[in-house]
Specification:
58 residues, mainly alpha
Length: 58
């Protein structure tokens, strides 16, 4: 029960925050999205490096 209440409280807070401060909410979500893209790019690059011909790792 407390977990469900906290979840709904967090959702309500996010909706309230996005409604009353849309510019700052957009900036935060843009930053989070850019961070996810950076992580995905780094992960893809690491996979390419490990699979490079002549690499000693398996």
């Amino acid at each position: 029960m407390p977990k469900k209440l906290l979840t709904w409280g967090l959702i309500a807070f996010l909706v309230f925050w996005a409604a009353y401060k849309p510019a700052s909410a957009a900036a935060v979500f843009k930053s989070l999205g850019n961070g996810l893209v950076d992580v995905a790019t780094a992960t893809r690059l690491l996979r390419c490096v490990r699979r490079a011909p002549g690499s000693t790792t398996t």
